[in-house]
C-alpha cells in the first residue's frame, strides 16, 4: 500500500462495519465500492474502491491518481487517503447520486454546468496536452477488434470499416477547433452527486478524466440524459434550456 501525501484517518479494523452498499452505492462497470464506517450516520465513513480484473488494460490507474489529486487541489474532489495495488481509499462525499429524472431539472443542470465549467478551467503546467479521445479510442479498438465475431449480424461493421470510420472521425473532428480543456469524460448521471445542504454538485470517478475536447465532455453528458438502460431520444436535453443556460 502506498500512502498519498494527504491526511490519513486512523481506522481500527475490529470496530469497522464493512458493508457492500448496494442500496446506496452501485457497483461500477469497472470497479466495486465498499463503505467502511463505525457511526450509524456514516459521519466517519471512508470509501474503498477495488478495481475490476484487467481493467488496467483500458484505464491508466497511475493517471487516475494524478487526476484525483489535481481535482482535489482545485476543490473538485474528495480527499484521497491512500492507494494500494488494486484500488483506492478516499473520503465519502454526502449527497444523492442523480438519475435521468434529476439532471433535466433547471436548478440542477445549472449546478452541473457550473461544476463542469470549473473543471474546464483547470490548466496544465506548460504546454497544453493533446486530447485523450483518439488515444483512448485507438487503445479500446486495439483491445476489442480481435474479439469481433465474423458470424455476427450484418449490423456489426467489419474491422476494416471501423478502422476507416475512426480515421475519418479523427480527420474531421480535429478540424472543429473545440477547445482542449481538462474534462471528466464520463459524466453519466450516477457520477454526479448533489448535496442539498450545501447547494452544490460534485463529480466522482476520475478513471477517464484528462485533457480532451470541451465539446466531448458536454456532448457526452447530454448523451446521458436518457440514462443507459433505454435509448430514448425524447429524454435528451431540450434545445431551449440548453441554449439559454449554456455550458
Number of helical segments?
A: 7
What is the CATH architecture assignment of the largest domain? Alpha-Beta Complex
| Stretches with pLDDT under 50, minimum 5 residues | 2-24, 242-247
Sheet with the most strands, sense and barrel status: 6 strands, antiparallel
GO molecular function, one term: ethanolamine kinase activity
Protein name: ethanolamine kinase
Family: Belongs to the choline/ethanolamine kinase family.
Pathway: Phospholipid metabolism; phosphatidylethanolamine biosynthesis; phosphatidylethanolamine from ethanolamine: step 1/3
What descriptors fit this protein?
247 residues, alpha+beta, Phosphorylase Kinase, domain 1, Aminoglycoside 3'-phosphotransferase, Chain: A, domain 2, 2 domains, six-stranded antiparallel sheet, three-stranded antiparallel sheet, 7 helices, globular, disordered N terminus
Q: Concise description?
A:
InterPro entries: Kinase-like_dom_sf. The chain has 247 residues and is α+β, with helices and mostly antiparallel strands.
Amino acid at each position: 500500500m502506498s500512502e498519498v501525501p494527504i491526511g490519513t484517518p486512523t481506522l481500527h479494523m475490529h470496530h469497522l462495519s464493512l458493508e457492500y452498499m448496494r442500496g446506496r452505492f452501485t457497483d461500477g462497470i469497472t470497479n466495486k465500492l465498499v463503505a467502511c464506517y463505525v457511526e450509524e450516520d456514516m459521519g466517519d465513513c471512508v470509501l474503498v474502491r477495488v478495481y475490476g480484473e484487467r481493467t488496467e488494460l483500458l484505464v491508466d490507474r497511475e493517471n487516475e491518481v494524478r487526476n484525483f489529486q489535481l481535482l482535489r487541489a482545485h476543490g473538485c474532489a474528495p480527499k484521497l487517503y491512500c492507494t494500494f495495488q488494486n484500488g483506492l481509499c478516499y473520503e465519502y462525499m454526502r449527497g444523492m447520486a442523480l438519475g435521468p429524472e434529476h439532471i433535466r431539472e433547471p436548478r440542477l443542470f445549472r449546478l452541473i454546468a457550473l461544476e463542469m465549467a470549473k473543471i474546464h478551467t483547470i490548466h496544465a503546467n506548460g504546454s497544453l496536452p493533446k486530447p485523450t479521445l483518439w488515444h483512448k479510442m485507438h487503445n479500446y479498438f486495439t483491445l476489442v477488434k480481435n474479439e469481433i465475431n465474423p458470424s455476427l449480424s450484418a449490423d456489426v461493421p467489419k474491422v476494416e470499416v471501423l478502422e476507416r470510420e475512426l480515421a475519418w472521425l479523427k480527420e474531421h473532428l480535429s478540424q472543429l477547433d473545440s477547445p482542449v480543456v481538462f474534462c471528466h469524460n464520463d459524466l453519466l448521471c450516477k457520477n454526479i452527486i448533489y448535496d442539498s445542504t450545501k447547494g452544490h454538485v460534485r463529480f466522482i470517478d476520475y478513471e477517464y478524466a484528462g485533457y480532451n475536447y470541451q465539446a466531448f465532455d458536454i456532448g457526452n453528458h447530454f448523451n446521458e440524459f436518457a440514462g443507459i438502460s433505454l435509448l430514448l431520444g425524447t429524454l435528451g436535453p431540450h434545445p431551449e434550456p440548453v441554449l439559454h443556460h449554456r455550458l
